[in-house]
Amino acid sequence: MSKSLFASAALVFATTASAQTQAPIAPTGEPEAAKVISVVSSIPLAVDLANYALAENAFAPKIVIDYTSLWGGSPNTMTPAELMTAWRGIVPGFDATWHELSDVRARVSGNSATATAAVDGRHWLGAALWRPIGTYEWDLEKRNGQWKVTRMVFKMTREIGERGLVQQAMERAKATAAVAK
Question: For all residues of the chain together, what is the average pLDDT?
Fold first, then answer.
């Protein structure tokens, strides 16, 4: 009797597993929103990998960058090259960075789009960690068939660790750049 019980259980499991793998997967999202999400998601990954050309390619010729919740001041309008110069003046000075995005969402309306994501930015010098946490907001325009970021806003909701690591990273990045010349 236990053999037939085992055989019955195995048959039920196999049938259920087969039905689950055969069931159609419902579509989620739409292609243009997926393209927008890919563009905005590429930026922090590119910076973490020091692929500034990839990061620069995500931006329109003029962009509004707003890090006022982190650094104070007011938003800046700049070129992608100017933004990459600013990032190169900090990020390479850390031993490692990881900007983890989650809950990335996009809304598309014709040739305009907005996107949002939660971000947890980790920046290490040795074992010391600086970790600004918050959200990103992006505005994008479709130009020549490509989505380009025209505005990027970071809104910090929490900060963990040592902000003073930023100054140390800037000094290290400057020293590294001087040696490379």
Answer: 89
Nearest C-alpha neighbor of 140 from the set 68, 50, 38: 38
Q: Environment class of residue 39 by beta-carbon count within 10 Å: exposed (0-12), middle (13-18) or buried (19+)?
A: buried
Phi, psi (deg, nearest 5) at residue 29:
70, -170
For 19, half-sphere exposure in the C-beta direction (CA atoms, 13 angstrom radius) is 6
Q: What is the mean pLDDT of residues 35-57?
A: 97
Both tokens of 98, joined, read 């990881």
Q: Note the pLDDT tens digit of each residue in 79-130.
A: 999 999 999 999 999 999 999 999 999 999 999 999 999 999 999 999 999 9
CA 96, CA 33: separation in Å to the nearest integer? 30
Q: How many CB atoms lie within 10 A of CB 119?
A: 21
Entry pTM = 0.82
Among candidates 101, 104, 93, which has minimal Cα distance to 130?
93
